[in-house]
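Trying the structure run again after the queue cleared.
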Amino acid sequence: MKRLQHNWQPLLAGVITAIAAARLPLTLPEAANPVQGGMMIALVLLAAVTLMLTLEGPIPRAAVLFVGAHLPAGLLLAGLSGNEGQMSTAFFLMIAASWLLAWACVSELSQIEPRSTAASWFLRLLIPAIFGAWILVIWEAATRGAGIPFILLPPPSAIAARIAGSLPILWADVRQTIFKAVLIGYVIGCAAGFVVAILADRFAFLRRGLIPVGNMVSALPIIGVAPIMVMWFGFDWQSKAAVVIIMTFFPMLVNTVAGLSAAGSMERDLMRSYASDYWQTLVKLRLPAAMPFIFNALKINSTLALIGAIVAEFFGTPIVGMGFRISTEIGRMNVDMVWAEIAVAALIGSVFYGVVALAERATTFWHPSIRGG
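Done. Tokens:
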């Protein structure tokens, strides 16, 4: 009974598949290109459910569920060509059944205890990859299968095609926004926030005066700051970098000041007993203790910098840049290009965040949060 309760997703998938098989075909009667093979897809789904319930161990069950979820999903998506908006209820029921099997697959993968570092990293990448892939599968099936207007929500396949066909434009936008405004503003803003935090820690009047001001400035709306920066620094990347500096300076300042207070009183007393001066205590004790706080600010700023630069480009920029492209193409109703820019920005932001997170693990390997991870 407990096993049946644990495996409710495959059981529900089997029930949904049986209902879908009774409602075949996969396309509506008026479809110009009827899809065959619906019963075969249903049999694959039911076979995966049956095998999963009979096998022992999470690895064999996960393998069966992986194939049983993704093979039918691939066949179903292949049948969308020429049948946009003409798919029947059976199609969507089988997509739902495949999704339930993918859910069960992720549950089984989560129960695997890896015996090596490589296996651990593989699972850490595979599980979110399955999650992300199924967001795209459901998105594709819903938009094309139900015939959602392209102007409202283009399918992922159209966005991918637009990315592949617009690589020179996207590269020029990335170079303008990321390599100039984001990276330069990020480095200057984080470095300035760190230096000022050290000074604020050294001099009490700075700490008491800057932290409240920092909290206030952090609440300033970017849409109010960006036009002012454009007026001050012009329409090129310098004004966008200035916005990024403002957005990244105070998170680094506040987090670093908080981190410098993280060292315990016993450790500080020990350093004083060694006759350590302020700078020796700072370098050997307080800065290492503040590293988790500093990297927390770096991770927060990695996303803030990207958002700030893109939004700032809405208020004046040369004829290149991710924000410029989004604002221009949405006016032309080229929503696939808008989504292409969004996808590229999301990918770059994720990579940026991941690089900072890896640097954190390499630098603060001694911290309990990293050792426990």
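Residues 2-148 form one domain. Worth checking whether this holds up in the mutant runs.
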